[in-house]
Design goal:
The protein contains 19 helices and 23 strands. The chain is α+β, with helices and mostly antiparallel strands. Among the domains are: 367-520, Beta-Lactamase (2-Layer Sandwich); 539-662, PAS domain (Beta-Lactamase). The chain is elongated. It starts with a helix and ends with a helix.
């Protein structure tokens, strides 16, 4: 509990951030769960209503009065039987009157008798357009009647081209049902009774044929659409069936925007509950299907779910505040007790260190030369701070950018005898003029060996040896434990003592250095060229330079690491070849670079650039053109710094250094 109290108090801002976002997550989860539950409740109700409506459709069609009437006529009416069997009618036969009476009684559009050969023998039509003589043997409703089965068949009328329902009953040869008929008695009605059932009961309702064609709907624009993918084979089978007349002869049907299955579906950005129910019409192709949709944005709006989610978040935040307040009080108690113990230990540690530091100062003053001074410093660093390894470099000569190795402690490998400003971490320290503590616990760090084994250091401390604003040397030590603030401050004091004594010994060596000045002058040019190359390659900011034709002449390591490229692969290429940059950016860079080279101008701006880590970084971008000695355009030097990691002022300073050194 104590650790948790400390963690929550020390990182209170992060803890509150976690509580806040966790509350938002709870609100979203509760809101989504509530919305899903309410949507599924509406889906369950919709499924029940869909089943009721499907039963009502079957009750008004296959099980309705019209079907019962024509079934009875096909069973008992001798005139109709004789007509279906191509026999001679009696002089008093009144088939037309019978058919007309049935049609008038049940609002049928037409009633007709079909013989066993599929030819309409007698017919009555409300509009005065009889169907007598039509060949309907290809119609499934006629084929099923010959097999002794009543059925309701929905199709597009051959004579009129309108949607119709064909109520069909078999005509039996005897006054008893059998498994085969001698003809069919058919009543054709409009789709009005089905359309009425679909209207004003559901947000959207449609009647699908076994082939997936929308035959009826309360959305007129959906009639004739096809559920699912309209493959060529599927369209051919639909057209060959001739159930839908000429609807699909010239054009393919549009796809239905919903799937005919129960569940929650999205359409045009709105969530719908979709329920289906089978309609049994004895269609030989399969069962018809009633599909109904309900707009959940109306029946189950998200407002109430959002309110429940908000209340859950408020409850969670209140609980989080109570827990945070509890742990904050606990942490305050622990902190007060720790402060008392820390103060006592700090005073004791300070007294002991001051005594040791005074003794170290005497030993440093007694050193006879620079090498002995450095060895004494490293020995005292080991005694005072537990340094396991260490090195001391001093400036090669006054005004030089190089440093030479003067002493080392417990180093078992070959060490560089010299070091340049900006070379490596220690060389960079001479430029930054500040002490740095580096984490050395990584897996690729070196190991420290002893007679009993080996181990890795925990920290690396590098510090410049500065006296009167001049960097006289560089110090690096490896520690088994990361240093505290007190240890770091104490180490800097010891380095100041080293600087004082080093300055005294350097002045004593000044005469000897003056004798070597002539040789140093001859070596200066070579050192300067090497320094320039070293500086460019060790600048932490990406650097590139181009020739007058806009092609790359070179880069530094930071550029390679930033974009994950190798300089050997890019030298001689233009920015148009940098595939890791967007094309629009490459074209803009190329035009800008050529203009800068021609005018020897300067461009400085902030801009987003994608790095090798996959992220787009906000950078300070700087390029400067330069001219050759004869005044012709020579090329440009460019750099940029990651504003997300460095202050803009630091980035600008780095750019100026690169331009000055390279140009």
């Amino acid at each position: 509990m104590n650790r948790l109290a400390t963690l929550l108090s020390v990182h209170a801002r992060w803890a509150w951030t976690v509580v806040f976002f966790a509350g938002l997550a709870v609100a979203v989860a509760v809101g989504m769960a509530d919305a899903d539950w309410r949507a599924r409740q509406r889906l369950s109700l919709l499924q029940t209503e869909a089943m009721r409506s499907a039963i009502e459709v079957m009750s008004s069609t296959l099980n309705g009065n019209l079907m019962g009437s024509i079934t009875l006529l096909g069973l008992i009416d001798n005139d109709i039987k004789q007509d279906a069997q191509n026999g001679l009618l009696s002089v008093d036969a009144a088939i037309d009157g019978t058919l007309g009476a049935v049609g008038a009684a049940f609002d049928a559009e037409g009633v007709f008798v079909v013989a066993s050969d599929g030819i309409v023998k007698s017919s009555w039509d409300r509009a005065g357009k009889p169907s007598t003589g039509l060949d309907v043997k290809f119609r499934p409703y006629f084929q099923m009647a010959l097999r002794g089965q009543s059925n309701v068949y929905a199709a597009v009328s051959m004579a009129r081209g309108d949607r119709a329902l064909y109520f069909t009953a078999p005509i039996y040869g005897e006054r008893a049902k059998s498994t085969s008929g001698v003809g069919a008695l058919v009543a054709r009605t409009t789709l009005e009774r089905v359309d009425k059932l679909l209207q004003n009961r559901f947000d959207t309702a449609l009647l699908l044929s076994p082939q997936g064609v929308v035959f009826a709907s309360n959305r007129a624009e959906w009639i004739g659409r096809l559920e699912g993918v309209a493959t060529p084979q599927r369209l051919k089978s639909i057209r060959d069936l001739k159930q839908f007349g000429a609807m699909f002869e010239k054009t393919d049907p549009e796809r239905l925007p919903v799937a005919a299955r129960d569940g929650l579906q999205d359409m045009d950005g709105t969530r719908y509950a979709v329920a289906t129910a089978d309609v049994e019409w004895h269609d030989p192709s399969g069962q018809w299907k009633l599909v109904v949709l309900e707009d959940l944005s109306v029946s189950a709006p998200l407002d109430s779910s959002a309110t429940r989610g908000g209340l859950a978040a408020v409850a969670f935040w209140l609980l989080g505040w109570m827990v945070m307040h509890l742990y904050k009080g606990r942490h305050a108690q622990l902190q007060a007790s720790a402060q008392l113990q820390l103060l006592a230990g700090e005073q004791e540690r300070l007294l002991k260190f001051r005594t040791q530091l005074g003794a170290a100062m005497v030993r440093l003053q007694q050193s006879p030369d620079i090498a002995g001074l450095c060895r004494t410093f490293l020995t005292d660093a080991h005694a005072l701070f537990g340094a396991l390894q260490g090195v001391v470099y001093t400036r090669a000569k006054e005004g030089s950018a190089g440093f030479v190795l003067q002493g080392s402690f417990a180093c078992d490998g070959a060490l560089p005898s010299s070091l340049q400003e900006g070379e490596g971490v220690l060389g960079q320290c001479a430029i930054e003029r500040t002490t740095r503590v580096l984490d050395a616990s990584g897996e690729h760090c070196w190991t420290i060996r002893s007679g009993l084994g080996s181990t890795q250091p925990a920290a690396l401390v590098v510090a410049p040896v500065i006296r009167n604003e001049h960097v006289l040397g560089l110090v690096e030590i490896a520690l088994l434990d990361a240093p505290s603030d007190f240890a770091r401050d104490s180490f800097e004091e010891l380095v100041q003592l080293l600087a004082l004594n080093l300055q005294i010994l350097l002045r004593a060596d000044q005469t000897r250095l003056l004798l070597e000045q002539a040789h140093a002058i001859r070596q200066a040019n070579a050192d300067q060229l090497h320094l320039q190359q070293t500086l460019i390659d060790n600048i932490p900011y990406p650097v590139f330079y181009k020739g007058a034709d806009g092609r790359f002449l070179g880069f530094n390591r930071a550029y390679e690491e930033t974009f994950g490229v190798a300089r050997a692969d890019l030298i001689g290429k233009s920015v148009m070849d940098l595939t890791y940059l967007p094309l629009a950016d490459r074209e803009a860079y190329q035009a800008e670079d050529m203009a800068t080279i021609a005018s020897a101008g300067v461009v400085s701006k902030t801009m987003p650039i994608p790095f090798a880590d996959g992220k787009v970084h906000n950078t300070l971008y700087y390029v400067a053109g330069f001219r050759n000695a004869d005044g012709t355009p020579g090329g440009l030097v460019g750099t940029f710094s990651d504003l997300d990691a460095l202050p803009p002022s630091a980035a600008a300073t780095a750019v100026e250094e690169v331009v000055e050194v390279t140009a």
